[in-house]
Design a protein that fits this description.
Layout lengths: L1 E6 L4 H12 L4 E7 L5 E7 L4 H10 L4 E3 L1
Antiparallel strand pairs: 1-3, 1-4, 2-3
Length: 68
């Protein structure tokens, strides 16, 4: 399963802030941030993913996210 989110991340520093939050979610097997496009996109792969859980974790890291 794969979900994509547009986010308010801006740079590699932002990605580093969100990394421990996403890495701590056991249902995520892989994720990546594409910071070379606008809006910035985070792609999440894993099993039993819930968009609202991932959005909540990104928001805990201090950023906004919206499923696309």
């Amino acid at each position: 399963m794969e979900l994509k989110f547009k986010t308010t991340l801006k740079c590699g520093g932002c990605e580093a802030k969100v990394k421990p939050f996403l890495d701590a979610m056991p249902q995520i097997s892989n994720w990546k941030a594409d910071l070379n496009q606008t809006p910035k996109i985070i792609t999440v792969q894993g099993e039993h993913l819930k968009a609202e859980d991932i959005i909540g974790v990104i928001e805990k890291a201090g950023f906004k996210a919206e499923i696309i």
